[in-house]
Design a protein that fits this description.
alpha+beta; 6 strands; AraC_E-bd; Reg_factor_effector_dom_sf; Cass2; GyrI-like domain-containing protein
Length: about 160
């Protein structure tokens, strides 16, 4: 399979809600990461087929919450509804929120975070912290590629809130 091209480091805003089903892991921050994130993504990959109402089995959503001491990191699939939640998993809805979005790859994710926060500052956007929202990393699984496409979404305050 060929690597689907995304414009790397393209920044924009989007407004969306998400219904997600998956698993999570909490670990010390920053010492427990990225190991904890990789661990839960690997565990979830073995079980993602159990989510029968997933919109796309090849797109992994990883919302996270961090207070600088510890972080909870999720591995999820987007679903049509929250009726069927496999045992040991959690289902939740992230309400309609405006996000600053940047495209990158698994190898450029660190640089992408620097760039998205720089872009947000230039545009006058403020990050919305834990108020009915959380940042999301979206991974596009592809076989036989050196690096996979990733999108990073940072919730921002709407001036109309």
């Amino acid at each position: 399979m060929e690597n689907k091209t995304m414009i790397q480091f393209h920044c924009e805003t989007i407004r969306r809600e998400y219904q997600l089903v998956g698993q999570s892991l909490t670990a010390n921050f920053p010492n427990g990461f990225p190991d904890a994130a990789l661990q839960i993504q690997s565990q979830f990959a073995e079980r993602r087929h159990e989510i029968t109402n997933a919109k796309d089995q090849e797109v992994l959503f990883s919302p996270y919450m961090c207070n600088g001491i510890f972080a909870t990191y999720f591995a999820c699939l987007e679903v049509d509804d929250l009726i069927l939640i496999p045992h040991g998993m959690i289902g939740f809805k992230l309400p309609n929120v405006t996000y600053a979005k940047i495209n990158c790859t698994t190898k450029t994710i660190g640089e992408a975070y620097s760039r998205i926060f720089e872009w947000m500052k230039e545009k006058g956007y403020e990050q919305k912290f834990l108020d009915q929202s959380c940042p999301i990393e979206i991974y596009y699984f592809e076989e036989n590629v050196e690096e996979e496409n990733v999108e990073i979404l940072i919730p921002i305050r709407d001036f109309i809130e």
